[in-house]
Design goal:
The chain contains 9 helices and 12 strands. The relative contact order is 0.09. The chain is about 35% helix and about 20% strand. The strands form 2 sheets. Strands 1, 2, 3, 4, 5, 6, 7, 8, 9 and 10 form a 10-stranded mixed beta sheet that branches. It has a two-stranded antiparallel ribbon with strand order 11-12. The chain folds into 2 domains: about 150 residues, no CATH class; about 130 residues, no CATH class. α1 crosses α2, α4 runs antiparallel to α8 and α6 crosses α7. This is SUKH-4 immunity protein of toxin-antitoxin system.
Length: about 290
């Protein structure tokens, strides 16, 4: 199942052609129909079917596309969106997985993929507004060109060290959401910062200063291992922290002037006693 949103006037005949090409089926095996049209005219045996609905606002069409199970090697949603954008010369939006409802990707006719923020009104026939884009998109002239912080906050960054730590904890420790749970959350935040940095900021291309600051502050809470931790969990924690700290040190450079501290905490914070991780910075700041 694919859910695409299109900005601009669309011709159904072009859509039939691009769907046939994208799914490697014949044009006769593609059914494109108005969602409010006569169902008796539908080709229910089609290999690929598409229902389209007219939208209001910055978007003109919603496409619900379905491929039968026998269709071999169907494209990903992003690839399909790029094919439709190139063929129709329109901007095509598709939802980002595990993101806030407003977080979408947009494929442009020029072959670019960018993040967009999409708002939908509460009316029965909602009005769609593309509020922001991360790169200029000429077909969306009213959208602000800006980075979208919620994209970074909602990234699904794997945290195997934290996962291993939690597996070593008795269930009642985490269920009670006591100090051990907060410690677990802090470890996850620190691991996400280090992993995101190590990946070259994959999935977003940047990291907002407030998120960077929050995740450095999370490391502050990991300086002392709670006495209540079971020995296996404590051992995993110490080993994991050593690994994360080593990676962070490798990916950063010394910052003796406290430039990063000044940016994140204010110039007055440069004289405070802070952990060593505050005194290192990436060669290029990610914002």
């Amino acid at each position: 199942m694919y859910n695409l949103l299109v900005a601009g006037a669309m011709e159904s005949r072009i859509l039939v052609s691009v769907l046939a090409s994208s799914f490697d089926v014949s044009v006769a095996d593609v059914d494109v129909s108005d969602s409010f049209g006569d169902t008796d005219l539908r080709n229910w045996e089609a290999a690929v079917s598409c229902q389209y609905s007219a939208l209001r606002g910055d978007l003109s069409w919603g496409l619900d596309i379905y491929a039968q199970e026998f269709v071999a090697d169907p494209p990903s949603e992003s690839v399909l969106a790029q094919h439709v954008a190139a063929a129709t010369e329109l901007v095509v939006l598709f939802p980002a997985e595990s993101m806030p409802p407003s977080a979408y990707w947009a494929a442009t006719p020029e072959g670019n993929i960018t993040r967009v923020r999409l708002y939908e009104s509460d009316e029965e026939a909602p009005v769609y507004v593309v509020d922001a884009v991360e790169i200029p998109v000429r077909q969306l002239p009213n959208a602000k060109v800006t980075r979208i912080p919620e994209v970074v906050r909602e990234l699904r960054i794997p945290t195997p060290i934290t996962d291993n730590f939690r597996e070593q904890m008795p269930a009642h420790f985490l269920a009670q959401r006591g100090p051990e749970w907060k410690f677990s959350d802090g470890l996850a935040a620190w691991e996400m910062l280090v992993a995101h940095m190590a990946s070259g900021w994959a999935g977003s291309g940047w990291c907002p200063p407030d998120i960077y600051r929050e995740r450095l502050a999370a490391r502050d809470g990991l300086t002392t291992v709670p006495d209540t931790l079971p020995p296996p969990a404590a051992a995993v924690l110490r080993q994991g922290l050593q690994q994360l700290d080593s990676t962070y040190a490798h990916l950063t450079t010394e910052d003796p002037q406290g430039s990063l501290i000044g940016l994140l905490l204010g110039t007055e914070a440069r004289g405070r006693q802070l952990g060593w991780w505050w005194h290192r910075r990436p060669e290029s700041l990610p914002w």
